[in-house]
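Sat 14:20. Reprocessing the chain from the morning session after the first attempt stalled halfway. Input below, unchanged.
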Amino acid sequence: MTQADRDRRAYALAQEYLLGLHVPGVTAELLAEYQRPLTRPWDLTGTHGLYRRLLGSAASPGMAPIVIEKAIGGIDNLSGVTFGFDPLRVSQHYRGWQELLDEIVRTLRPQGKLRRAPSSVWVRFCSAALSGARFLVGFRSAQEFYAWADVFHDDERKVPALPLLLSREIFGFGFALACDFLMDLGYSKLTKPDVHVTAIVGGLGLCEPKADNYAVYKSVVRIARHQETTPYDVGQMFWLVGSGHFYRHRNIGKQGRIPTDRDAFIRAAHIQLDQATG
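Finished this time. Tokens:
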């Protein structure tokens, strides 16, 4: 079995796994909705919409959705402390993460325990919020940001440089979070090498053991090329296997979540791939 054959078979096995769970509503048509890249939100004006999406990505990894989003009732409730998600006013008003966090506590009174250690979720989020605001101040509009980002996205050799740049500009935005932010803006040549995608790509022998985020991303790009689809599509398929989260369809399963077993899938799929190779 060539690498191209193994890549294509791995993708097919992921799709077969999800459909084989026989969960009501999980059909090939439903999966197709999650495979299609998000459309570019052309309705964005200024940089307020970009900043709102950046904060959403900053609040997405690990325990952050519970520690931050749930604690304040959703990212949209940050509108008041961010002046309607205005990155310029945020960058001018707050001198450091402490001031922003103090204002969030005073205004929104987050539920749960709030830690202020340097590595804590809230400190990392507020640091990302401030550095992200300062980065976006360099663009007069969403369209100007898109024009800048398109230069990278339109050249396959330059695509990975885009999230790498963002990861350097925005505190706590590693390669994976930068990809998440850009994918939400319609950039389909990227994929988020999160915990599920990384585990599946590595577990099926589609990249080197203990590969970093960039290496996982490159492997997903290769799989997409062999499958004649987008990295976004491949990443979504593997992510659904790992998470079972059909976030656009709360009528599926339990509030949009179905029981999946990522490790069981990896074990079974790895055996099938090895048998085909033998």
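Residues 57 and 64 are 10 Å apart (CA to CA).
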